[in-house]
Every structure is written in C-alpha cells, then in structure tokens.
Amino acid sequence: MDKDDQLIKLFQKLRDIPTAESPKKFLLVTLGDNQYGLETHRIAAVVSINKMSKGPDIPTYVKGMLNWHGSRIPVIDIRTQLDSPLRQYDQNSCIAVMKLDGNCVGLVVDRIHEIAALEEKQFLSSPAT
After folding, report:
1. pLDDT tens figures, 51-100
2. Distance (Å, whole) CA 31 – CA 77
C-alpha cells in the first residue's frame, strides 16, 4: 500500500464527529520531539507534502500553497510559530488540511500516527505565553 492509499484510509476514519457524551477524537501527529492532537472534526484532508507548490511574495511562515478543490490554501510549517528548528521534509512529512474559522489552512507535520479518543483529563496544559 503506497502513502496516498494510507492517507485515504486514515481520512476515512476522521469522519466520525464526537458527541457531547463521547471522548473527543484526535489525529495524533508528531512535530519534532513532541506529539500533538488535532481535532478530527476540523480536518478536511491529509495530503502528501509533494502536493505543495512554492509561490512568490509569501510570508516566511507560509511554506507554500496547496491547490485543494480549486482553491489555493496556504501551507504553514508551525515550527516557525513555535520557534522550533526547521527540518528537511521526508517521506513521512505530510499536510493536514484544517478547517479553522470558515477557512482552510494546511499544517505541515512530521508524521501521522493514529486516531485516538481522548478525554479532557488526558490533556496537558499549554505553556504560558
């Protein structure tokens, strides 16, 4: 099974939206040495990093653009926002297309792991800014 087939199967699992009484579902991803959870109901797609194209005159935190269903959406490497060192993309790198405030944005992640149902008590607080 190639990487695109794996991404398609993973995306099919994302369709379940949690109810109020069920734990929330998260797509677990790695970014550097840390693991993060992205709420599955916000994920529109997971696509290969090689679908991203470069563009002129874009901010440094925007690594490229993704043509997604006829729309061009920005792809952000959130390492720039977290002050983490940049790294070379590899065969595990991919883009999580997220729906945020009515818009779509692509987030570069190092690796996708699994979908997990998590309860609020399992979360760590985010560091103070």
Report:
1. 888 877 888 778 889 988 888 899 998 887 777 788 888 999 999 999 98
2. 10
Give me the architecture of the 3-121 domain, per CATH.
Beta Barrel (2.40)
CA pair distance 61, 75, nearest whole angstrom: 9
Residue indicated by tokens 């690796």: 111
Cross-strand pairs, 52: 66
Residue 51: name the closest of 85, 7, 1 by CA. Answer: 7
* CA-angle at 50, arms to 33 and 39, nearest 5°: 50
In angstroms, rounded to a whole number, what is the distance separating the alpha carbons of residues 113 and 27? 7
pTM above 0.85, yes or no: no
Of residues 100, 104, 69, 92, the one with CA closest to residue 10 = 92
Of all helices (H) and strands (E), which one includes residue 7? Answer: helix 3-13
